[in-house]
Structure formats: C-alpha cells, structure tokens
Specification:
60% of the residues lie in helices and 0% in strands. The chain has 2 domains: 216 residues, Orthogonal Bundle (Hypothetical protein af1432), CATH 1.10.3210.10; 58 residues, no CATH class. The protein has 16 helices and no strands. The protein is flat, with a radius of gyration of 21 Å. The protein is mainly α.
C-alpha cells in the first residue's frame, strides 16, 4: 500500500518544475531519520518549526515600532506569517515546492532579537564576535531548540534560513523566493504601520512607488508579486528591472522616513542599556543562566551562551529581567 508521503512525493514529481526541489530529492538531515508515513520531509520541517518555542516567542518581539500603543501593529510573528504567505502564493504560481518555501519562511527569523533591529544592532556591538540575526536563526534550529538537540531540519530548509538576508549562489529557487518575499512583506507592512502611527501619509510615498506599485497596501503587494511571478516564469527568480527600481526606491524612502525617523525610534537609545545590562550581569554570573544555556557555556564559552539567551528573549521578558536585576524590589518593614 502506498503511504500518504509516497503519494505526495508522486504528486510533486508531476507538478514541481525542474528548478524546484522535490522532497524525495532532499540532501537530507544532519542526523538521518527514517521517512515519515504521513508527511514529506519538508512538511515535517514545517511542523517542527511551528511547534518550537522560538517560533511562539516571535509574537512578543518587535518588528519596527517599540512598545506601540495599539493591537494592530506588526510583530515579528505577523511579519513571518506575511512573508510565508506571499512566498507560498508565488511558489504555487511558479510550480515550485510550496512546503519547502513555507518551512524557510516560517523559520527565517527565529533568531531575531528582542526590540527588532535595534536589539540586533545592540547585540552586534556588545557580543565580541558580532551578531547577525540570520546566522542566529540557523543556530536556533541547529543548536538551541529542543534543549540543544536542534530541530534536525533538512539541508534545503537550513540553508534557506541562513541565506534569507543576502542570498547565496547555492540557493534553491524556493530560498530565493522567500528572500524576495521578505522584502516585499516588510516594505509594505512597515509603511502600513507608519501610516497607522501617523508618521507618514499615503501621499508621502514617492511618485515612482505610487505609479508603478500602487496606492494601497493590497494593491502594492499584488503588483509586486504579480511582477515577480511573471518575470520569474521566463527567467531567473526575480522582479523586472522596472519593478526592482521602484522597490529599491520604496525601501530607500522607508529608511529615511521611518527606520531613521526620531519619532519612530525615540526609545531605541534605551535598548542597548537594557540588553547591555543583562549581558554584563550574566557574563559575570553565568551560574544564573538557565540549564540549557549552562550546557552551551560549558561547550562554547560563557559569552556565546549569554548571547544565545539574550537574543532569544521577548521584549517584555528582557524588560522584566532588567528590572529584576537592577531595580530594587519592594519590601515591607514589619
């Protein structure tokens, strides 16, 4: 009797194009595992990421705006879901492997710091070896999750996560699609959040953006993804030159108007003090680290363990830890 996994693999052979990755042709896992009866290897990767602790913590990590007042601003989790949905839509249109695309999309930001890129910049200055969230995401799935055992993901998923920021000549088509979808998602939802925060108005967007991409959140995403699919269908995975120019202008505009805007970033100066204080405390008192990180300290050094611990914190937990360490506790005189 043919198993459900074997049936899925047969469907992939019939539906995935030549440049896509069939799950049956995966280069495998770091540690060999017998194939699953129900799921392909990439479907298993999706489930492992989705059920991981680091994935759940993304809902309490900043995307752009620190501690915003309101329920509708993006978090690192909603960003991840938007990236994954955009990438999977394009993968289906291009007859690529939707499951591999989804696994990379869901896992790409697992190593992101609290307080968004402000936290990443702070840790990069504090940690002597430097900190890059895409490398940390790869480390999370290989070394940190499941009490140090890692998730044992497929080669293609792991490399897609590692290379999601800058890409690599060895990337699969699915990995390239996630990298581009990451940009499509963040430039669109960040301007949406900036308009909600009254930092921008729709009419502030550059003329090239409004003419070539659109005048609303949904129309802009649809225009870019449609261009990406149409252009990728006849060539390498990527947008047309005309759309690339508009998207690059869009991104440059956001850096000037939002990412470096004093109103949006007014609290960022406090981030390094918070993370730096926590860092110094645990470097000096490694015995106070949780057990999982004590094992990392024994094998790879205290600073590596503290970096892993601090980068995995949510915004609220980092603030709580800072207060717990440095703010005197209330007490009652009897």
């Amino acid at each position: 009797m043919q198993s459900p996994r074997e049936r899925f693999e047969e469907i992939e052979r019939l539906t995935i194009c030549e440049r896509g990755v069939q799950s049956a042709n995966s280069k495998g896992r770091l540690i060999y595992e017998e194939p699953d009866f129900l799921r392909t290897c990439f479907q298993r990767d999706i489930d492992r990421i989705l059920h991981s602790k680091s994935f759940r913590r993304l809902k309490h990590k900043t995307q752009v705006f620190l501690q915003p007042e309101g329920d509708h601003y993006r978090t690192r989790l909603t960003h991840t879901l938007e990236v994954t949905r955009i990438a999977r839509t394009a993968a289906r249109a291009l007859s690529l492997n939707e499951d591999l695309t989804e696994a990379i999309g869901l896992g790409h930001d697992l190593g992101h710091t609290p307080f968004g890129h402000a936290g990443e910049r702070a840790l990069n200055e504090i940690y002597p070896q430097g900190f890059r969230h895409y490398e940390q995401s790869h480390r999370v799935v290989d070394r940190i999750e499941k009490s140090g055992r890692g998730l044992n993901l497929c080669h293609e998923t792991r490399l897609g996560i590692l290379n999601h920021t800058y890409g690599s000549k060895d990337d699969t088509a699915e990995a390239t699609l996630v990298r581009l979808s990451d940009r499509v998602a963040y430039i669109n939802h960040d301007v949406d959040d900036a308009i909600r925060a009254k930092i921008l108005k729709e009419e502030d967007l550059p003329e090239i953006v409004r003419q070539r991409i659109g005048n609303s959140h949904s129309s802009r995403i649809n225009a870019i993804v449609t261009d990406l699919v149409e252009n990728s269908a006849v060539g390498e995975i990527g947008m047309s030159e005309e759309m690339t120019e508009a998207v690059d202008c869009f991104r440059d505009f956001l850096f000037e108007a939002v990412y470096r805007n004093p109103r949006a970033k007014s609290e960022e100066s406090k981030v390094k003090n918070i993370l730096g204080g926590i860092w110094e405390h645990y470097v000096k008192n490694p015995d106070k680290l949780p057990e999982d990180y004590l094992r990392i300290a024994d094998m790879e050094g205290v600073e590596r363990a503290v970096c892993d611990y601090v980068s995995g914190m949510t915004d609220d937990y980092a603030i709580y830890q800072f207060g717990n360490i440095f703010v005197p506790a209330a007490w009652e005189l009897r």
